[in-house]
Design a protein that fits this description.
By secondary structure, the chain is mainly alpha-helical. The chain is 54% helix and 5% strand. The chain has one domain. The chain has 3 helices and 2 strands; from the N terminus they run αβαβα.
Length: 126
Amino acid sequence: MFENLEVFRLSHALARHAGARQAVVAQNMANADTPDYAARDIAPFSAHLEATQGMRATRPGHLFGQSGPLAFEAHEERGAARDPNGNSVSLETEMLRAVDVQRQHGRALAIYRSGLTVLRTAISRS
């Protein structure tokens, strides 16, 4: 029942995006010394949100069955400075991204908690 509420769907999608982005940041850091490795990142959550604000599939097969799981694709960063060995990972940039991901995950949890508080208040008043 609660997974059908938009606020919980939004917080779930935001948390999944943060998790996917954290995995990409960790992979970048792990490959910081790998020759010819290109740093990758995921599009911001706002881009995903704008893409999904239009028509939505409400049942399987609706809109050609496009109601599948959220997919966040990592893309190679263009124009990043490369080391002499061809690596484009900057540990400073990755640390900043990790902090951004932590904030995004905290924001998702805050939205979820706020939604639960509203539901509890509504239930206790009835």
